[in-house]
Amino acid sequence: MKGEPFCVSIGELSTAKGHWQKKIMPVDALHYMPPHGGGWGVVRMALQTPESVVLMAAPPVCARITALRELRLEYMNRFFFLNLGESDFIDGTYPEKIMKAVDEILSLLVPVPKVLFLCETCIDDILGSDYEYLCRKIGKIHGITVKSIHLKPTSADGKQPSGLISQLSMYSILEPDEEKDAGINIIGSMVPIDNESEFHTVMNRVGIKPVRHISSCESIEEFKRMSKSRYNLLLRPVARLAVQTMEEQLGIPFLHMPVSYGIKTIDQSYRVLEDFLGESLRVKDYRTEAKDFIASCCDKFRGFTAAVGASVNAGAFELARALTEYGLNVRYVFANAVIDFDTEHVEWLKQFVPDLKVYTNSHTTMAEFYNLGINVDLAFGFEAGYFCSGAKTVPLSADTQPFGYRGIIKLLNDMSNAVDSQELHREVMYKSLYKPGRPEYARSV
Amino acid sequence: MQGLYKHLPPFSSDIAGACSALFGLGGIVVVHEPACCTSSYTMFDEPRYYGSSSTLYSSELREIHISTGDDETILRRIEAAVHRMDCSFIAIVGSPIPMFAGTDYNALIRLVEKRTGIPSFAVDAGGFDWYDLGVSKAFLALAKRFVRSTGPLPKKEPAVNIIGATPLDAMVAHSEDSLRTLIGESGYTILSFWTQGSSIQEIAQSAKASINVVGSSSGIQTAEYLKNTFGTPYILGLPIGRLSSVRFLKKLKAAMINSEDGPICNISYTKNGSQAAVLIIGEQVLSNSIRDCLRMDFGIRDITVASFFSMENTNLENQDIQLDDEDSLAKLLDKCRFDVIMGDRIFSNFLNPSNGIHFISIPQIAVSGFLPSEENPNLLGERGFSYFNEILHYFYH
Description:
The structure holds two protein chains of two kinds. Chain A contains 17 helices and 19 strands. By secondary structure, chain A is an alpha/beta fold. By secondary structure, chain B is an alpha/beta fold. In chain B, strand 8 (209-214), helix 10 and strand 9 form a beta-alpha-beta unit. In chain B, helix 1 (14-21) packs across helix 2, helix 1 runs parallel beside helix 7 and helix 7 (131-146) packs parallel to helix 10. Chain B is globular, with a radius of gyration of 22 Å. Classes of the chains: A alpha/beta, B alpha/beta. At the A-B interface, strand 3, helix 2, strand 5, helix 4 and helix 5 of A face strand 1, helix 1, helix 2, strand 3 and helix 4 of B.
């Protein structure tokens, strides 16, 4: 490498209004791919829908990473791949092949799934495949719900990347229900809010229950009862299109309440939540609990250097701010874009951590970053852990969803565990690919 | 239904094969795609990637580039990369999107080379084929672009090139060190090991070798090219097991072992009075090498090789089977003809435990990806004999 890896100072980051994800990476740069944990692709997200299966009809290159992820997560019995060749696309026979594949899949599964997702790829966009028609036709033949989801990296930087479209597709299964109960839906997080979070008790106290999340639903009927909820709480921006549509079509208003780790940010979030719900939430005891825990831990981590990656289960810049407030010396953030909800924390960091350097995960020069030996004590997120080889990694992956004041306690405990752990980053990262899956469908033999 | 995969993941694509073949050679490898096709390769298919300084990139193709036919942005990105990163060549690997957009890779490469002054070539992968075709195309492109002789045919050195045998080919552990040792015993040195550890400069000297060793089917086309261009003969196979390795080394010395030599082990592996029938599912050259070991070292005669990947007709035996897809594998296994089956561990999911068939796992990254914690068996030379001897004893005694 000639020169230093590409980076910007925190002061150079633009927070002007405009696109909801402001790219940090320059336009004229080839895209490097760091080793990464499993993550949540569109197929894994869609399979949160109970009693559902996914069929991807595409060349092998499109489906391999999804299939291997699902294999390790034990979802392989719910993911099917139809290998399409060049000639299938060129002669236009692939819709018939898809329908034939669906016939075979549904004949094998006991019980028959209630929802089938057909996964489109960017090839379908170029060719103008009419998946809407295909979904309607297949749904009519088999009497099940058929929706399309999109694996569309060609629009990753756009206003509606794959994840947003796919979340919209998932929640479009819900039907209007005028009879509302006192429930609240948690939308956008990949897993329900942790049981340890005070959120459940706080909601229960003011009579807001049940707290619903798509992956807690055991059946499609239970999933459809999410339409009865009175409120939607959007935790992560990937579902913003879904909640906007749910507000219009199902009459469920939403509040965007990003996950935070800073105590002042959480204070502010609960105040906004109180206004939204029209209820006083009485969270003071939990705040005190968190403050006391922070005080007991702060000496342990004071002066620790840290790096934060964008793969964490919150805003990268918000987490950087929180860690700074807890006494750590945050040196680096690894992120390809500034997401709109994080801009206020970027502004705070500009004022209070002006030396903070922001690297991207994907700039051309990051190919040699690993061997530069740039190090910190704690790295948050797998990509930060990779780039700062030698750091102890706190994964904070989307496989867990801490929330609220007790989220701070969980964060600090995770940090302690990381400091004490002897596991290398690579081991932790590859281990995260394996998670217990949902109950299996039985295949007929 | 043909092409429907219900239990198996799709195998590594030709894009992954090309990237694997070009890994670690000091070039900038650009996969012309939207930063998706490469992700399964970096995550699951390339054990060397983590911690490397691999200059493998995606061109980050977007809708706007495709719909406006904008190649200029990609060219500028490559130029910017050359200014920041050291490289000895530039390779552009294709993918489905530019293929459908009718991208002229040859024209693109000419422009890249003109603007950067760096030797450049393209590998026309489309993401539709399996990895072995991508490896083959990449190796051939390397050979045509870099392997040169000046003047008359180069003076042949007592050295070999090893072509093929990438990590995607079920590569046996520690293959480079073991092969160097084994081949060294025959009086040869390894001039280049495509591409496990050799630089582009070493590969460029390949014409000086007196013989090429082709470790997998993906190396055959390149070996043929080198034979036709530089007169370098080649042998197929790897030294697996004891007698098979002796024969392999003698072949290198242009002598053949007496094929009537009997097995080392006088224990016969039988089931119900008849000889054990073995099925090996995997890449053809490696599988044939394992077959040689089982025959020569253990006297097992009834051995079938089946593969999802390329199978050369000249290396087939009558009973060998080209597998088309998952259904053809299921049909083959349903016949219950075999006593022992070897292959990637994921194939064992097709077996009914009550049939009493023994399964030997020979992991193949191109099938089920790699795990850092997984140790592939080292089957080269005497280690291969010990490995199979222990397992077969366990099964039958």
